[in-house]
Amino acid sequence: MDVSGRAAIVGSGLIGRAWAVVFARRGWDVALYDAGSGIAEQARTLVAEALDELAAHGLVEDAGAAAARVRAAGSLADALGGATFVQENTPERLEVKRAIFAELDRLAAPEAILASSTSTIVASAFTAELKGRHRCLVAHPVNPPHLVPLVELVAAPWTAPVVVERAKAIYQAVGQAPIVVKREIEGFILNRLQAVLLSEAFRLVEQGYVTPQDLDQTLKHGLGRRWSFMGPFETIELNAPGGIPDYCARYGASLARLSAADPAIYDGDSLGRILAQWTPLMPAQVATRMGWRDRRLAALEAHMRSQPAP
User: Cα–Cα distances in Å, from 177 out to 36, 153, 168, 171, 180?
Assistant: First the structure.
């Protein structure tokens, strides 16, 4: 599948600039557009600086060549001219999304994919009336996208499956790590997980159980270490001899009590639906995988110790 081309970045703030870096460093021509006077021109300078910083870390081979592929467009029509992929990054307000997507659908080439960086609003809320609604989807990044590769792809009910497949291939080709959210849900996956963790963090500090500083230490030197290269399912699989079912049998009731969740999610049909989608490790593989985990943690610890204090 051909995944090279020309990208239009609509909205040239922090996220838009990062997207310009993502595409330009992988050989795409990039047009930056912003409705604010002079913002796209300023953004182009900041994109070049970000590329230089990446090059200093060995993450871009030729920062100058990548920067040369980025231009400031004088109008929205100019930015969209010849674009095969559009990444929208306008303010997080429904009326703004509806207005800009109406313009994108009107001006962009019929085959161009229209992706929104929105962090909470589902695509069906702002694309329902569009003639080209089949080519619209959410592609929610993590800030900053050029350093944190996750992208959540969330289709509207009418988004064509081939559009999701093509978007996924494009994001993979430019070095991102796309996931597909199987149906629309407000806040998508990352922000829903983050919301639960942040809410509990605020409660624990506000109620006097821990200081904000020590709570941050808990994440930085505890959960965050493993979570930097393993997700929660992979983590718990290595924390009980019999994998995920064993972990749930041992700790499901207490986890449900701590989180005010229904204990049934850790048992029976609910657990069965998760295990049906998971490829469990064989008992003989667990020790090998634990060794891999420990080597990764050791490498991460060595890296952390090598870094200057903030």
Answer: 31, 10, 9, 7, 10
Query: For tokens 């093509």, what's the residue?
Result: 166
- Longest CA span, the chain: 62
Q: Is pTM beyond 0.70 here?
A: yes
For 114-126, the pLDDT digits (tens) are 999 999 999 999 9
Predicted local confidence at residue 3, as pLDDT: 60
Distance of alpha carbon 276 from the chain centroid: 25
Give the position of tokens 């709570």.
215
C-beta pairs of 96-104 under 8 Å, 24+ apart in sequence: 97/121, 97/125, 97/126, 98/126, 100/10, 101/126, 101/127, 101/130, 101/136, 102/129, 102/130, 103/76, 104/10, 104/76, 104/80
> What's the pLDDT tens digit per position in 70-80?
999 999 999 99
**Orientation of helix 268-276 relative to helix 243-259, angle to 10°:** 130
pLDDT tens-place string over residues 195-248: 999 999 999 999 999 999 999 999 999 999 999 999 999 999 999 988 999 999
Does the structure show a pLDDT above 70 at 50? yes
Distance CA 81, CA 85 (A): 11
For residue 1, what pLDDT is reported? 47
